[in-house]
Amino acid sequence: MTLLSKLHNEGNKYPLTVKLYRHHDQEIRFAERFKIYENVHFEFCDSYEAVIRDSDLVISAVTRATENFAADDCYKEGVTVIPICTLGFQNCDLFFDKVYTDEIEQIRGFKYFNQFKAVYNVTDVLQKRAPGRTSSKERILVYNYGIGIHDLYFAKKFYDAIQGKDIEYRFCKDKYFV
């Protein structure tokens, strides 16, 4: 069940604003697809800065970027940024409070890796060996390079955790490549 369908099914009264960058009317088709959810409001933005400014969660699926998407001051306290392609967010590496990843070794070669304030594996957070968010002001980056199903699995675990459910996770000890 998706977050949007869960909000709809539970009759959640809290509004959810989803900001979408205007691109070839894709934002209109996306909003049309989810118009049945009364508590979801869509806002179409003409710039990346407008999408990012005052957002609590930024998910980017842009596949190529040659410069940063937004100035540092666009990223409010408490924001979580989850980029599929990390280019465009390199400025965040220098001032965000924490970086989470599915495998630290995969991002060790990042230009600003040695300047991250803190970096943790997501699995260590799920197993309570590393801290998750400890303040509502922390700015957090999530650099995951696993396959999409892993992202969905972890997103579900995080959602369950914020709902107060106990999380059981068995750490994978082997790597498999298909």
Give the count of helical stretches: 7
Query: How is the biggest beta sheet arranged?
Result: 5 strands, parallel
Question: In what range is the share of β-strand residues?
Answer: 15-25%
Which sequence of strands runs across the widest sheet?
3-4-7-5-6
- Uncertain parts: 1-7
How many beta-strand runs? 7
What does the radius of gyration come to? 17 Å
Structural class: alpha/beta
Helix amount: 25-40%
Query: What string, H for helix and E for strand, traces the elements in order?
Result: HEHEHEEHEHEHEH
Mean pLDDT: 84
Whole-Å distance between the termini? 27 Å
Oligomer: single chain
Shape type: globular
Please sum up the structure shown.
The protein is an alpha/beta fold. Helix content is 27%, strand content 17%.
Walk me through this protein's architecture.
Residues 1-7 have low confidence and may be disordered. The protein is globular, with a radius of gyration of 17 Å. The chain has helices at 3-9, 26-33, 48-52, 90-93, 104-107, 122-126, 148-162, and strands at 16-21, 40-45, 57-60, 80-83, 98-101, 119-121, 140-143. The protein has a five-stranded parallel β-sheet with strand order 3-4-7-5-6. Strands 1-2 form a two-stranded parallel sheet. By secondary structure, it is an alpha/beta fold.
